Amino acid sequence: MKFLLVLLVLWLFGRYVVPLLMRIILRHLLKKQAQRFGQPFGGSPFAGQPHARNGQPPTGEVQVEYVPPRSTPRKPTEFKGGEYVEFEEVK
């Protein structure tokens, strides 16, 4: 009876507690590695979006200052059909 109780406790521990501990440990290690990776580049991936400095967009962002207006709106052309191509079966 004592053997079955120990087996049940070990099974419950392995089923519910070990995955929870592994998630916590893995999350901690991943955050630590991400912070270590981000240091040479001046930041951490978990720090959020960089803020604009002196009215300029952050590095790597594209800013479009001028978009030329369209001359006339395009109308979709009607499909008038294609040409007929005869099919020959090749054996």
TrEMBL record:
Species annotation: Hymenobacter metallilatus
Short name of one Pfam family for this protein? DUF4834
Write down the superkingdom of origin: Bacteria
InterPro entries named among the record's database cross-references: DUF4834
Q: Where is this region: Disordered?
A: 45-75
What is the name listed in the Swiss-Prot or TrEMBL entry for this protein?
DUF4834 family protein
